[in-house]
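PROTEIN DESIGN WORKSHEET
SECTION A - STRUCTURE
LENGTH: 150
TOKENS:
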């Protein structure tokens, strides 16, 4: 299950960037919109958020020492996880905002609209890849059984 989830996450990550690069190639054929840095930013934010989010181990979030001698590692891990999730959410929200502001409001044709849709599809694929990878690598192993023999 762990290997399959990792492969699915990798496939979603690859699909997201492939769709984005397809939109980048298609943008060369239209003159209605220019493909700028603002179109790259949501995907880069989601990729960075995925790296940050999946670098946190779930046991770090639960392991908070009590008292003055604790290093506060769980608090730092929670803050890092929050930053990663905020980058993922900001990337998705940014791609939707770019789609609305740059492609829907000016009412561009369907060929140029495809470019904006690829940006949203990319960030959603990266978000789903991050979620799948997080749950697969932080889930309890199903094949670990603790039997008590009397």
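SECTION B - SEQUENCE
RESIDUE ASSIGNMENT:
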């Amino acid at each position: 299950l762990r290997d399959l989830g990792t492969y699915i996450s990798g496939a979603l990550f690859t699909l997201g960037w492939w769709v984005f690069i397809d939109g980048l190639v298609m943008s060369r054929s239209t003159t209605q919109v220019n493909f700028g840095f603002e179109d790259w930013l949501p995907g880069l934010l989601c990729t960075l958020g995925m790296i940050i989010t999946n670098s946190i181990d779930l046991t770090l979030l639960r392991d908070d020492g009590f008292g003055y001698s604790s290093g506060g590692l769980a608090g730092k891990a929670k803050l890092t996880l929050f930053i990663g999730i905020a980058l993922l959410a900001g990337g998705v929200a940014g791609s939707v905002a770019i789609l609305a502001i740059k492609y829907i409001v000016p009412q561009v044709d369907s060929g140029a609209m495809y470019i904006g849709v690829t940006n949203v599809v990319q960030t959603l694929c990266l978000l789903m890849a991050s979620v799948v990878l997080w749950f697969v690598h932080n889930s309890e192993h199903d094949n670990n059984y603790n039997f008590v023999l009397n």
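SECTION C - NOTES
The chain has five helices and no strands.
The longest helix spans residues 73-104.
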